[in-house]
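Hi P.,

Sorry for the delay on this. The queue was packed all week, but I finally got your sequence through. Input first:
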Amino acid sequence: MSIDVSQFHQVFFEESFEGLDAMEMGLLSMQEGSPDAETINTIFRAAHSIKGGAGTFGFSQVSEFTHGLETLLDQMRNGERDVSQQAINTLLQSVDVLREMLTAVQQGAEIDKASAEMVSHELEALLQSGTTAASQQEAEAPVLTKPSGWHIYFKPHPHLLQTGNDPVRMLHELAELGELSVQMESSALPAFSDLEPEDCYLAWTIELRGDVALEQVNEIFEWVEGDCELAITALPDEADHKPAEAEVEAAHDEMATVPAAVAPNPAETKKVTAETAMSSIRVGTDKVDSLINLVGELVITQSMLSQLGENFDPSRLQQLVDGLEQLERNTRELQEGIMRIRMLPISFAFNRFPRLVHDLSAKMGKQVELKLTGEQTELDKTVMEKIGDPLVHLVRNSLDHGLETPEKRRAAGKTETGLLHLNAYHQGGTIVIEISDDGAGLNEDKILSKAIERGLVASGESLSPEKIHELIFMPGFSTADVVSDVSGRGVGMDVVRKNINSLGGSVEVSSTAGVGSTFTIRLPLTLAIMDGQTIQVGDQRYIIPLISIIESVEIKPGTVKQVTGKGEVYSLRDEYVPIIRLYDLFNLTPRSDRLEDGLLVVVEFEDRKVGLLVDELLAQQQVVIKSLESNYRKVTGMAGATILGDGTVALILDISGLLTLYRNPPQQSAAKTIRAA
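Then the structure:
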């Protein structure tokens, strides 16, 4: 029996990517000179862990690349080298290369050797460059006699193999440091019938000769402390000592006799890394314990109801009612517990921005302070994955268009360093994300003139500041004078709004000239369950997302006007709201075609209000969203479907799609499809 280490690959990749994030954050916080000891130790430990794990699982290219990176970090950690901006930049490039290499390995793709070699050469050039003043002083200090090598006794505890550590890898790493001779002790091996294949029964007596520092030896055994007996002593100085040829051969033979249980199988590695579509979430044990307790309560309730069902009579009706109420409570708590498992802190999305701001601000010659608040605000994993790109667009927009160069900020009486603030918080059943800056604000005159130039606004038309701000979300709109790789191609803000709307959210902008701008995103906490309002239209029931509804009103005579070419509009206080008769749109037979007999549900989309004429409002409830596209096909005007309490299917309305249908009414067959879907 052998251990299939491929089962640990996913954990290795997750931990490695987390380690790279920690390295990146640490490097971005480092300043030239002598770094904070804890910061450099954190970066070093992350690199060392990635190197060790990559070596264990046979990802040799990753392990070899990390070796030079680790050496440079070790010199900084030991005070042998000061921290320079060049070194920080090279280390950041190394993090990028490692992330690309790990992604390629995880997906079973080819590693980009050219970029890895280029950064490796830069690391090597740094390692070969001049030493610091501290190391020069050490060079001038009296030379102490160094031992000719080290005598090492290494006896793993039986469980060491089960921790993922590999004695073979450690022996190979020792062999890279100097001349190695090894003697294996196998006296503890039991009879074959008593052998546990996942236990380690071997020990090694090792002689390592060469100019090797004790710290280098200790690093190799750093990750097995507490899982082995280890003794390292200096060898006496023996000039030009070389292990006998027989000893070397014995060392190789003995290394080969280490149980192959922990050696990765290349074929298995390739097979597993190709299957990387599966993703995972790390869940705290407290959340798992809570679910186990809830399942226990559910089992008790089910047992109670089963007993009632076996011997039921009318006198036990109250017990049945109590049991059903308890079942409802348990189900609701279980649902909430499961949803909490999918919730992740938004720091997972925010963590990419320190590096982005660092690189872009340097490229544009701007000084920017990034402030992150509310990082522990939680939202659904699916929402997290889809909000990343819109956030990147908004941050790049603030860096390019919002924040000024130091010269312009000084001229405006501001500090040279601009502030970019990302904030997240919960508000009701939504999460709010704000991206604000203290830059120049939106140039309303320039936006309006560009809009007139493109024919989006009539010449001489007067618009309020809010309406002018909304123009930046028009497709293809841009005020950039020069097209760059940051912005100016007219692709961005309309995509941001479209992507956020597809998540059931909204985005708004507020700006003051010379003070700054704030983009506010509102999103549902989850895409799996939502609060909805059930409505009746003819003989069909639909669900309107509660987050889209502003109010519901009864239509009184005289409040509806007919506008030529634009249909019916309802006079709602100081504005006119277009009316969409859903029964016409869906080709249904209504209970009555008189407006006064129905109800108008006023919904909002992209700061535009529209009234949906329905026959009746039914209950408000939480609904589980089922995808139409994956289970049937995409239907314009429908965001999905759900199963109601009576077992019937109700379609969930998509306000954006309804407006599209309203402007371009479907053919008869299409309307029937909507009704029958």
